[in-house]
C-alpha cells in the first residue's frame, strides 16, 4: 500500500511539473523593438530557415560533385547454391567403354567469391566543369538566402508597423468615442429640457454609432495584424509580442536617417548578383555540353578470392580460397552521336544568350525600382509633414466647432462635419507614418542595407 502511495505521489509531481512547463511556454511574452524583431526573424522566420537549408544542401551538393573524381571503392560477395548440377554426356572412350556415353556433372554444389574494386577517374572534361558549376550554385544559394533575408526584414517592418498603426487607431477611436458620448449626453439633457432640437441628438447618435463600429473593426484588425507579425517572426499566432517602439518616433527616425545623397552601387545589389550567377551557370552548362566531346580516362583495380565445395564450410579454418586480381584502364572516346551533342551544345548556347538578356533586363529593373523607391520615399516624407499639419488644423477646427456647438452658435451638422474632417485627418496621419516606414524599408531592401545593427 505504501509503495502505491509512493508511485502516486511521483506521478502527481511529474504531471504538475509538465503542466507547469507547458503553461510557462504558452505564457512566454516577447518584448521587441523593431530592430529586435528583425534580428529575431533572421533566425526564426520560416522563409529564412528554408533558405538556410538551401545553402546547406548546396554545400552537400558541392561535396557530392567533388567526390565523383575521388577514389570509389566497392565490395561484393556472391554465393551460389546448385541443388542440381548440369549433366554433360561424354564419350565412353574416356573411361575405356567405346561406343557409349557417360553422364558427368561439372561444377560444385556451393560456390562463393568476395571481391573489392577501386575506380579512379583520371580525366573527364565534364567533371572539371561540374566542379565549377557546384561552386557557382553555392554562390547562387548564398545570394538567394541573402535576398530572402532582405525580404523578411521588409515584411517584419511592414507587419510591425501595421500592429502599431492598428493600436494607435484603437486609441484614437476610443478617445473620439468618449468625446462623442459626452457630447451626446450633454445634448440629450439639453433636449430633455426643451432647449435643443431632436435632430441634434440624432446627428450625435449617428456619430457615436459609427465610432463604435469603427472601434470594433479596429480591434479586430489589431488582432489580425498581431497574428500576421507572429507569422513573419516565425512564432505561433497566439504568442504575445509587446512592441516597444512608437509609430511616430519610428517615422521621424526613418526620415532623419534617409540620405538622399548616398551612393547607390548597382553591382553590390543582391538582384544583380543573382542575375550574374544565372549567366555563370548557363555558361558552365554550355561548357559542359562541349566537354562531352572529350575522351574520358579512368583506371581500376580489382582484387578478390573464390572458393567452392560440395559442403557449405566457407568460414571454417583451413578452407582453401583462391585469390585473383586485375589492374586496368578504360578509355572512352566519343566519335559520332548523329549530331545529338551538337544539338545539345547549341541549346546550351541559346540558354546562355537568354541569360545575358535577362541580366540586362535585371540591371534596368534594378535602376527603375531604385528610382521609384526614392520617389516614393520623397513623397511619403512630404505627405507625412502635410498630414501632420492638416491634423493640427483639423483638431483646432473641431475644437472651435465643439465650443460653438455648446454655446449654441453651431449646429450639430456643422459639428459632425468638423468631426468627420478630424477623423479623416487622424487616419491620414497614421497612414502617412506607416507609408514613411514602408517606403524606407523598400529603399533599404533595394540598396541592400546591412541586415543587423
From TrEMBL:
Coiled coil: 163-228, 345-372
First-listed, main subcellular location of the protein, grouped into a coarse class: membrane
Molecular function, one GO term: porin activity
Cellular component GO terms held in the UniProt record: cell outer membrane; efflux pump complex
The keyword Hydrolase is assigned to this record: no
Signal peptide location: 1-20
Pfam families: OEP
Transport found in the keyword field: yes
Protein known as: Outer membrane protein TolC
Amino acid at each position: 500500500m505504501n509503495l502505491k502511495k509512493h508511485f502516486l505521489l511521483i506521478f502527481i509531481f511529474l504531471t504538475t511539473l509538465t503542466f507547469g512547463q507547458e503553461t510557462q511556454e504558452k505564457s512566454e511574452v516577447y518584448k521587441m523593438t523593431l530592430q529586435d524583431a528583425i534580428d529575431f526573424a533572421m533566425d526564426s522566420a520560416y522563409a529564412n530557415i528554408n533558405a538556410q537549408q538551401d545553402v546547406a544542401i548546396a554545400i552537400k551538393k558541392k561535396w557530392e560533385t567533388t567526390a565523383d573524381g575521388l577514389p570509389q571503392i566497392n565490395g561484393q560477395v556472391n554465393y551460389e547454391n546448385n541443388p542440381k548440377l548440369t549433366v554433360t554426356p561424354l564419350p565412353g572412350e574416356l573411361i575405356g567403354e567405346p561406343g557409349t556415353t557417360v553422364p558427368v556433372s561439372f561444377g560444385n554444389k556451393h560456390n562463393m567469391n568476395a571481391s573489392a574494386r577501386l575506380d579512379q577517374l583520371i580525366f573527364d572534361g565534364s567533371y572539371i566543369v561540374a566542379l565549377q558549376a557546384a561552386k557557382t550554385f553555392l554562390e547562387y544559394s548564398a545570394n538567394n538566402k541573402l535576398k530572402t533575408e532582405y525580404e523578411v526584414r521588409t515584411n517584419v517592418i511592414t507587419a510591425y508597423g501595421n500592429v502599431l498603426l492598428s493600436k494607435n487607431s484603437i486609441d484614437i477611436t476610443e478617445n473620439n468615442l468618449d468625446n462623442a458620448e459626452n457630447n451626446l449626453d450633454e445634448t440629450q439633457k439639453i433636449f430633455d429640457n426643451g432647449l435643443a432640437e431632436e435632430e441634434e441628438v440624432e446627428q450625435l447618435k449617428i456619430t457615436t454609432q459609427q465610432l463604435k463600429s469603427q472601434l470594433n473593426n479596429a480591434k479586430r484588425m489589431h488582432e489580425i495584424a498581431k497574428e500576421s507579425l507572429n507569422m513573419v517572426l516565425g512564432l505561433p499566432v497566439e504568442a504575445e509580442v509587446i512592441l516597444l517602439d512608437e509609430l511616430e518616433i519610428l517615422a521621424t527616425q526613418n526620415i532623419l536617417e534617409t540620405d538622399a545623397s548616398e551612393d547607390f552601387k548597382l553591382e553590390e545589389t543582391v538582384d544583380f548578383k543573382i542575375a550574374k550567377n544565372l549567366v555563370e551557370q548557363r555558361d558552365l552548362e554550355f561548357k559542359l555540353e562541349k566537354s562531352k566531346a572529350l575522351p574520358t580516362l579512368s583506371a581500376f583495380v580489382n582484387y578478390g578470392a573464390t572458393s567452392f565445395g560440395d559442403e557449405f564450410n566457407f568460414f571454417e579454418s583451413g578452407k582453401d580460397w583462391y585469390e585473383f586480381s586485375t589492374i586496368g584502364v578504360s578509355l572512352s572516346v566519343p566519335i559520332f552521336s548523329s549530331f545529338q551533342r551538337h544539338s545539345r551544345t547549341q541549346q546550351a548556347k541559346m540558354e546562355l544568350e537568354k541569360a545575358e538578356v535577362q541580366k540586362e533586363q535585371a540591371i534596368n529593373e534594378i535602376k527603375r525600382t531604385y528610382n521609384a523607391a526614392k520617389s516614393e520615399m520623397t513623397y511619403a516624407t512630404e505627405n507625412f509633414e502635410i498630414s501632420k499639419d492638416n491634423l493640427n488644423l483639423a483638431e483646432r477646427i473641431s475644437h472651435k466647432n465643439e465650443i460653438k456647438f455648446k454655446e449654441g452658435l453651431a449646429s450639430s451638422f456643422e459639428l459632425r462635419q468638423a468631426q468627420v474632417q478630424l477623423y479623416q485627418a487622424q487616419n491620414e496621419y497614421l497612414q502617412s507614418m506607416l507609408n514613411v516606414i514602408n517606403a524606407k524599408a523598400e529603399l533599404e531592401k533595394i540598396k541592400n542595407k546591412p541586415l543587423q545593427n
